[in-house]
Amino acid sequence: MKALLLLLIPGLAYADDPCEFTVADPVITPVRDVALDAQRAACVRDDVAVGMLAHALIDTPGFHGVLGGDLLVGVRFSIKKAYELSAQLRVVDVTYVQNAVNKATHIGGGPVVLGGVATTPLGAARAGVLLQLELPFTRDRMDTMHFGGQLAAIISDRLTDRLVLHGRLGGVGMVASSLGGDTSRVAFRAGADLAWHLRERLALSAGAEISAGWYGGFDHVLFRAGLHWQPTDRWRLLAGLGAPAFGDERTNAVIVVTVAHDS
Fold first, then answer.
1. Structure letter (DSSP) for residue 33
2. Which pLDDT tens digits describe the chain residue by residue (263 residues)?
3. Entry pTM
4. Which CATH number fits domain 17-262: 3.30.470.20, 3.30.300.20, 2.40.128.130, 2.60.40.10?
5. Which residues, at least 6 apart from 50, have a Cβ–Cβ distance to it below 8 Å?
C-alpha cells in the first residue's frame, strides 16, 4: 500500500527529521492580540515574513460586532540549528466596531514582540521551549502600558514519510495598566497540528487548540486548517482558517495569509 501511495503522489524520499521541509510547519491562526498564542513547530528557521490577519466577532441577529485586520512583519534567524531569535512588528491594526447605537473605526500600530526558542533532539523528534514577550510602550497609544507573553513547550515528530505532528503545551498572559485602572488575563493552552506532506513543496495541515482561563473558565476549542506552499526555492505562501467552538470565546473566525522569504 505504501508503494502504491508513493506512485500516486510522487515526491522526494523523506528522512526522519521532522524539520527537513519547511512546508510541513503548521500555519498559525492566533486568537489573542498580536498573535501571542501563535502555533509553531519545534524547528528553527531563517526567514522574513509579511502576513495579514483578519478576525471577526459577529452578533448575527443584529449584524453587530467587531471586525479587525492586522499587517504583521516578522523576522527569524537561527543559531547553530538549535536556537532561534525573532522579532515581530504589527505595522497596522484596523478595528471596526458596530452596535445598535454607534459605529467606530480605530487605526493604530505596534507593538513589537520579541521571541526566542531553544530546541534539542528527542530521539527522532525535536523538542524545545518557546518564549515570546511584547515590549511595553511600543503601541501607538502610549497612555496605556501593555505587556504580554507566551511560554510553551513544543515538539515536532515525523510519524510517517508524509505525516508530521506538532504539539505544544503552555500559557499566555497579558497585563494592561493606565490611569483608569489595571487588567490582566492568563490562559493555559494545549494543542496539536498534523501536516500532510503531499509533495516536496506542498503540505496541508489540520489542528486543534484548547484554551482555559482567559475569560475565567473554559475559553474554546479552536479548530483550524491550513495550506503551506513553496512555489520557488526561497518563497513560501501560507493560508489558514481557524474557528473557535464551545466555551466563552467571543471571536467567531480567524483568517491568515502570509508570504515568507527564506534566508
1. G
2. 333 333 333 444 456 899 999 999 999 999 999 999 999 999 999 999 999 999 999 886 666 889 999 999 999 999 999 999 999 999 999 999 988 788 999 999 999 999 999 999 999 999 999 999 999 999 988 889 999 999 999 999 999 999 999 999 999 999 999 988 999 999 999 999 999 999 999 999 999 999 999 999 999 999 999 999 999 999 999 999 999 999 999 999 999 999 999 98
3. 0.90
4. 2.40.128.130
5. 71, 72, 73, 258, 259, 260
